[in-house]
Design brief:
7 helices, 67% helix, 148 residues, 0% strand, Carboxymuconolactone decarboxylase family protein, AhpD-like, mainly alpha, single chain
Length: 148
């Protein structure tokens, strides 16, 4: 696979990197942040972002079993705790927007596990990884590419 284009405005790249870093820092849970970004990237079929965030998660010491089962987190039993499950459900709801909005019960469950500030940063993190996914998958940037 070859990229359709590797051209990306430096201002766009810089703004998204800043937004990503700010959302991750404000969220405050780097491991869960990576799981969220991986899950959104799975849903969006973004090979570039999957490759990148799986490597980051492995570097943080995330257990391979958790990474292997992330795509089936709802069926994975106690592999993911309630807080992680709430974040992953919110990730799916924001990413897919099947009903045209995030269902109240999904948002309320996330709000039970995260304070207002954490939740705001989690939604921002999900939003920005979806933007990255669309930029990379839309241009077909291959995994591991250094030109994008």
């Amino acid at each position: 696979m070859t990229a359709r284009t590797t051209r990306l405005d430096d201002g766009v790249r810089s703004a998204l990197r800043t937004l990503s870093a700010t959302a991750k820092k404000g969220f405050g849970d780097p491991v869960l942040a990576e799981l969220v970004q991986i899950r959104a990237s799975q849903l969006n079929h973004c090979a570039f972002c999957l490759d990148l965030h799986l490597a980051i998660a492995r570097g943080q010491g995330v257990d391979e079993r958790r990474l292997d089962l992330l795509d089936a987190w709802e069926e994975a039993g106690d592999v993911f705790d309630e807080r992680e499950r709430a974040a992953l459900a919110l990730t799916e709801a924001v990413t897919v927007l099947t009903e045209g909005f995030v269902p109240d019960e999904v948002y309320e469950e996330a709000a039970r596990h995260f304070g207002d500030t954490e939740l705001a940063h989690l939604v921002a993190l999900i939003t920005v990884i979806n933007s990255w996914n669309r930029l990379m998958a839309g241009r077909r940037i291959p995994p591991g590419s250094t030109e994008w």
